[in-house]
Specification:
The protein is of the alpha/beta class. The chain has helices spanning about 1-20, 25-35, 35-50, 55-70, 75-90, 120-130, 145-160, 170-185, 205-220, 235-250, 270-275, 295-305; strands at about 105-110, 135-140, 160-165, 190-195, 225-230, 255-260, 280-285, 290-295. It contains twelve helices and eight strands.
């Protein structure tokens, strides 16, 4: 088990360092010229534009201001190290802990908007739990999109994982009921529920998530035991808005942050935790089944503030 997580952590560090979302060089340039109020204003703007959010940008800039005031002869590298320290403090409770499953089956509902990478993330989760030696069942409850069901079916066949699906237009809650019933009968360890890609502004669709939760709890009183929100990192501050609205309809336990291998700035991890207290548990770094990496705050912050 330890070797498994160690290899994942090494992969995370390697992949993050190659993404190129680092703001470390920009911060170095700001403070290599001077450490005046103008430089601090530039820092605050940079942090905000890097998707850290208003609260984190203001707080971190103030920390740097105090640090400069108390240490007159510091270098730009010292300032970057100070920022690393402060961001790690913000994210101190973020690191993924070893899984604990108190109920069998352990039911995880996965939600998110269209295009966030939700369906692929479910396949990656299935592979992850399979690698832990767990039996897995996928419930394809996105009955509005045939392509989503077909995609999950292909993944299930590839990974040799059970799947419960239905015809287009079927009641998603009925599919969930059948799926959880099957999982109980077969003594399955993990159940992953795929839900339709919601537009987070559509209240009627959000209420359907509540219905799925009610149906799940009829079979297992505490189900779903976790609800993962899949967020596209490239959407920046829109991701924070999505998290707020989803969390108001169905309390989110963890975030899966996808597409961090493209143009994402990375700071949204900090904004989501600072604003909502929601942890990023997983990072998606590609399309392969094993491209779902456990979040590690130190590796993430080192990559975010790295200097070439």
């Amino acid at each position: 088990m330890f070797k498994f997580f160690k290899s994942k952590l090494k992969k995370l560090s390697s992949r993050l360092s190659s993404i190129g979302f680092s703001i470390g060089n920009k911060i170095k340039n700001i403070f290599s010229k001077n450490k005046t109020d103008d430089a601090l204003e530039e820092l605050e703007k940079l942090l905000y534009e890097s998707d850290l959010g208003v609260k984190a940008a203001l707080e971190l800039t103030e920390k740097v201001k105090e640090y400069i005031k108390e240490n007159k002869n510091i270098s730009s590298e010292d300032i970057i190290n100070k920022l690393k320290e402060e961001i790690c403090l913000i994210l101190k409770d973020q690191n993924t802990k070893e899984e604990e499953f108190k109920t069998t089956p352990h039911v995880i509902m996965v939600v998110g908007t269209n295009g966030s990478g939700k369906t692929t993330s479910i396949a990656k989760l299935a592979k992850y739990y399979q690698d832990l030696g767990k039996s897995v069942l996928i419930i394809a409850a996105d009955t509005y999109r045939v392509a989503a069901v077909e995609q999950l079916n292909l993944w299930a066949n590839k990974l040799n994982i059970n799947i419960v699906k239905s015809q287009k237009g079927s009641d998603p809650s009925a599919v969930v009921y059948d799926g959880i019933s099957s999982a109980i009968a077969k003594n399955i360890d993990i159940v992953l529920i795929d839900t339709a890609g919601r537009l987070h502004t559509k209240t009627d669709l959000m209420k359907e998530l509540e219905k799925i939760k009610r149906v799940s709890s009829k079979l297992l009183p505490t189900a779903p035991h976790e609800t993962f929100l899949v967020i596209d990192a490239t959407t920046g501050q829109n991701a924070l808005d999505q998290a707020k609205i989803f969390n108001s309809f169905t309390p989110i336990t963890n975030i899966i942050l996808t597409k961090l291998d493209g143009s994402a700035k990375g700071g949204i991890v900090i904004a989501i935790y600072k604003e909502l207290g929601l942890k990023v548990k997983w990072i998606g770094l590609g399309e392969a089944a094993d491209d779902l990496i456990s979040f590690d705050s130190k590796s993430f912050v080192d990559a975010l503030l790295s200097i070439e």
